[in-house]
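in:
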């Protein structure tokens, strides 16, 4: 087991804790991380691009003029794609870009991402992060004391004061254990785990 220091909001060491090797010391395979991150980003795509096809255009179905004898090209109704205001032929329709990779692969990628942060010494365990009131200034003071300006903070339960104090701070994000994901772990420079959240992470990934 890896032993890491537990610090308080003033960056002072208060104790130590053990991190399971089966979660925080896993061999890293970049192709698996890439596969899961690609899946996450694909699932976030809106897929809402849409055009009106011939059947969606409002207009008469009457033939514009007779088939022969005018010297002009043949025409059907006014909704034809070749006419101004007509329907689109091969334009996009709303669709979902989401797809899934196996659950075991997603879980393994999450372990790898956590292992990366520990190896890079970018993982910090905080004993607690309690704010008496909603105050962004106090939150920023704690982050400055920890010397962090780009961090993902993982909590074990809902903390409204902390969430509202942090929401306007750039390059800082709060997630619960349930929302922990590979993309956000790798995106942020530092990973801050509240000590109480470690058991929850282990329970989720060792289940």
């Amino acid at each position: 087991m890896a032993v890491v220091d537990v610090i308080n909001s003033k960056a002072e060491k208060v104790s130590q804790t053990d991190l399971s090797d089966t979660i925080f010391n896993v061999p890293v395979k970049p192709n698996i991380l890439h596969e899961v991150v690609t899946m996450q980003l694909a699932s976030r795509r809106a897929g809402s691009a849409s055009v009106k096809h011939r059947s969606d255009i409002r207009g008469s179905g009457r033939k514009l003029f007779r088939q022969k004898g005018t010297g002009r090209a043949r025409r059907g109704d006014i909704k034809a794609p070749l006419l101004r205001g007509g329907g689109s032929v091969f334009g996009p329709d709303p669709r979902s870009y989401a797809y899934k990779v196996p659950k075991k692969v997603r879980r393994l990628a999450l372990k790898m991402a956590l292992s990366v942060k520990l190896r890079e010494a970018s993982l910090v365990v905080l004993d607690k992060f309690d704010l008496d009131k909603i105050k962004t200034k106090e939150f920023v003071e704690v982050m400055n004391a920890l010397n962090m300006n780009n961090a993902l903070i993982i909590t074990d339960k809902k903390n409204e004061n902390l969430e509202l104090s942090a929401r306007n701070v750039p390059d800082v994000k709060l997630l619960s254990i349930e929302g922990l994901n590979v993309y956000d772990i790798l995106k942020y420079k530092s990973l801050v785990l509240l000590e109480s959240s470690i058991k929850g992470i282990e329970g989720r990934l060792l289940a």
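note: The mean pLDDT is 93.
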